[in-house]
Amino acid sequence: MTVSRRNFLKTVGLTGAVLSLGIYIPTNAEEAEIIKAAEADSFGVEMNAWVHIDTSGKVTIFSHRAEMGQGVYQAIPQMVAEELEVNLDEVNIVFAKGDNKKYGSQITGGSSTVRGSYKNLLNLGATAREMLIQAAANKWNVPKSDCYAQAGHVFHRPTNRQFHYGELVLDANKLETPKNIILKKRSDYKLIGKPLPRQDTRLKTNGTATFGLDKEIPGMLYAMVVRNPRLRGKVKSFDDTAARKIPGVKHVVKTRMGVFSTYREGVAVVADSIWAAMQAKKVLTVEWDDSGFEHLSTADIYKRQAEALQTQEGLPFKQQGDAAGIIAQAPKKIDVVYETPYQYHSCMEPLNCIAHYQEGKLEIWGPIQAPEWIQDYISKEMNIPRENVIVNMTFLGGGFGRKAFMDYPHEASVISKAVGAPIQVVWTREDDATQGPYRPGISYRCEGVVTNGEISAFKVKLAGQNNNHWRGAPKDKPNGSASEGFLKPYFDSIKNLSIQDIPFETPIPTMWWRSVYASTNGFAYESFLDELAIEAGKDPLAFRKDYLKEDRLHLLIDKMIDVSGWKNRKKNEGYGTAITECFGSTVGQVVKVSRNTDGKLTIDRVWAVMDCGWYVNPDTIKAQVEGAIVMGLGAATMHQVTFQDGIPVDKNFYSYQLPRITDIPPIEIYIMENDADAGGVGEPGLPAFAPALTNAIFDLTGKRIRKLPFNLATV
């Protein structure tokens, strides 16, 4: 359900008056203000995250972020309901349209929804609660201090009189919005911090949740596209004779979609059913012009990276002390290379998008992570006023960053304009796997010197595609995420340290993937730290603790030691560890491996300890960390995107295999309790797994794995 504010207020007005509050962020202000809808209209300002309470007591709030399985559909109402003092079953949540002037940033990525808005949402619920309490006190003509809110009612302590919220909204709406509301202490929470059932579970299990593929609008046609298998190729010609003979086919048109500053061309088949479009696509013949750019293979890419690491100095990202000089003079040093592969997002729901172009106006529906980016891009590309590009978000069947991109909505919009009808473009699994953009494959040269059991020099060079170069970032500057995943306290404790980025480009489009660069950096940095610990003759966790001089990190490491039985390791058991940080949260993992009776390597258990500061729902955290570990297991041991002659080889799950339930080891998740600001949850659980696993394998076998993916069965 997506509606405009005006229409929403008309609709809820049918049930009587409403108390309608929202968050207004003044220009250049550090803090948001809570204002009433009437105030927003009279002042001519836009407010977001409205909470509406009608005369029945029903609470409705807008979700300005996408729900792609990560739990914002639960977290947002759980936060508002806590301070508002209502039961979760009295809260209804509605997806907002794309409008960053009204809602602020609506980009769902970087594990940002809770950590970026939790204080405002708590304040929103608390403000509404205080206004309702004041309204009740006024009606009873008693001091406000004698009243309290609970379960959607306001009670008078001395007499136990009560009003339902719905009985108070008219009076509350006449009050001034209070300032400087005091929020609850965490110890007083009734909902936050509790493993409450998710609000979207019922919708997703009974089939009523509307994902992009479920959405339909009147008069909609269906499109499938034969796209160039190489990014920069052109359509030379096409023969649609056989395609047009398929019953239901209406149009066959040349199309293109923007991929950063380039374009991918293709030919679209438009039909009155998805089946007809699929069959016509199979018999469409297209000749491509792929001249003028390199057709690289995977071997070429990693050969060039290896050569660059050995022959070039990179752009300095972090330089302190004289790491290079110490390494050059050292009689003994560690000098190793780690490789990480290209990966695709493999979302459960392949890409899809509905677009309806009308003269000067475009409306879009679909699984979308970044509505404002789509509005900006399509407005420019199709010369449509930005306010006339309307973006409606549905549920997402997984995103991992891929559905924050603008290419698939742009393509749908171009086709709709060409055929003069609303259309839904549906991608096949093969389309999804072979079109990119991908997580970049990166190689790391790690050099270090250990003297008297201490790190005296630490140097890392990385060679891999910089995602920001596709977006116009200067190529004479290092990748700003060159140390993402690497804990910042290391910069204080390792005196001679150098991190360099070697610019590296290919025609293969790359972009964000779950945990972004931490997913590759984490493997290299945490594996290298393990090698340094072994060289120093020290316990790997104790070694890290010596260099991570923060009480909060020491508590996390102590928890890892305690839950995993680290100090009670036995013979013929391999234990490995890794600690990574990204998006405001730190995750430490311990992996235990052994040989089974057949001599095959087995992952016996994974322990993960997350410090994400303030949090909403522990079950959501555990689900996200478990999912991240499963995704990390696949990326480390099962799948990669490979290229031959510039074309992706791995087109579906028969070659790009994912973990099955029988592959998943027991996983234990622990959450640190503290009063720190909220950190991210959806992404930080992934980076530590691969290095913890390979460090465990080294502990058991003495074999150091430095290239991903690897086959567990052959170790």
UniProtKB/TrEMBL annotation:
Pfam families: MoCoBD_1 (PF02738), MoCoBD_2 (PF20256). It comes from the Bacteria. Residues 206-292 form the Aldehyde oxidase/xanthine dehydrogenase a/b hammerhead domain. One of its GO terms (molecular function) is oxidoreductase activity. NCBIfam families: TAT_signal_seq (TIGR01409). This is Xanthine dehydrogenase family protein molybdopterin-binding subunit. It comes from Spirosoma foliorum. The lineage of its organism: Bacteria, Pseudomonadati, Bacteroidota, Cytophagia, Cytophagales.
